[in-house]
Design goal:
homodimer, alpha/beta, Rossmann fold, 4-stranded parallel sheet, two-stranded parallel ribbon, 8 helices, 8 strands
Chain lengths: 219, 219
């Protein structure tokens, strides 16, 4: 796992990976190697052309994990997928964007709303991969909410702000909402949204476990 | 982090490490490298002389983490500390036994009760390190409860069984209880016990963060 963006989201992803295994005992679980590195260059600044690319650091993390034995790579950070092409470590990479989009499209929506940060929107990570139109949540609401969650905020006010942004997208025609930043599902729940809410972290955990089963079977 | 014993306990430890940092943003967190390996040889079988030693696998995991840059090692599994001497990777190792015992002794108990599995008791990991007497919880209750928790059980019945074992220890004179197996605090809470309950996972997280601050300062 190429993690640390942010650290709480990485812990959330690991918990979902563990919970996703129907285990009778420890040995039924896959081995998981994690590099939780909160010092990866800022994705939003890089997307604005105002900071260094996170690509080389992500590539080095991936290489280190593969050297330790990783056979599948996953990265629980939507925005960092803007630099996924830099991760070329010779093993399969499970895309969080593809995993979340697949779960959203299963609802056959005419339009999808995404709650995402600046880099994810600027690089159009969901829009460029989607066959249906993708509506972006108000960055002036989502970005401060994500920053607050990274600083430990789990307040009703911040959850209400994210719910309000989701409601705006639904009013504009979105029939599914993707929590397209790993901090968002730490606070926003299905009960806060009137249409299906796709948790990108949970979607990546499911896709990663599915890939792990296939890798294990092929060995 | 030398993890995976069990996987849910490793996820719990990571969540506590993250929550333990007073962070304003991602970059305030330490980098954490994790090898969550649920295939380490069984500690209880090894302590009974009925299975291979986990020592060589733990040593190899530690070496791999240090090669990736780890400057401090922690292992969220009490029983595996029976083979801590095998972990000789040239960087500080934060002992979970010492961390939990220190928190227990801060309450100045005349006796400490431990809820632990077979290996931890057979190797007397707490007793041999403690200046006050250590009473062992009924293994016929604790071991099945731990196995059930590893298989996903989060039931009130299992929590009540652990609480009953703790109550027996209190009746026998224990003035502090240590949840001395990382699965126990996944279910047993302070409200279930009438004397202070020390969570060995939380104690290790606090000790690890303290060691990380010192390492960072010395750099």
């Amino acid at each position: 796992m190429i993690g640390g963006m942010g650290p709480a989201a990485t812990a959330d992803f690991l918990a979902r990976l563990v919970a996703g295994v129907a285990a009778g005992s420890d040995i039924d679980h896959p081995r998981v190697l994690i590099d939780s590195n909160p010092h990866v260059p800022d994705r939003n600044a890089a997307a604005r052309g105002e900071g260094p690319s996170p690509g080389p650091v992500l590539a080095a993390m991936a290489q280190g994990l593969v050297e330790q034995g990783a056979q599948i790579l996953a990265m629980p950070c939507n925005a960092a997928h803007g630099w996924a092409e830099a991760i070329n470590a010779g093993v399969p990479f499970v895309s969080m964007i593809d995993a979340a989009l697949a779960e959203a499209l299963a609802h056959r929506p005419r339009a999808i709303g995404v709650l995402a940060v600046g880099a994810t929107l600027a690089l159009d990570l969901y829009g460029r991969a989607s066959p249906v139109s993708v509506l972006a949540g108000d960055l002036a609401v989502v970005q401060p909410a994500v920053n607050a969650i990274k600083a430990g905020d789990r307040s009703d006010a911040t959850r209400a702000a994210l719910a309000g942004s989701a409601a705006q997208l639904v009013a504009a025609g979105a029939e599914v909402i993707i929590a397209a930043c790993t901090e968002v599902p730490l606070l926003l729940r299905q009960a806060d949204v009137t249409v299906p809410l796709i948790d990108s972290t949970a979607a990546l955990a499911r896709a990663t476990l599915a890939a792990a089963v296939l890798t294990d079977r092929d060995r």
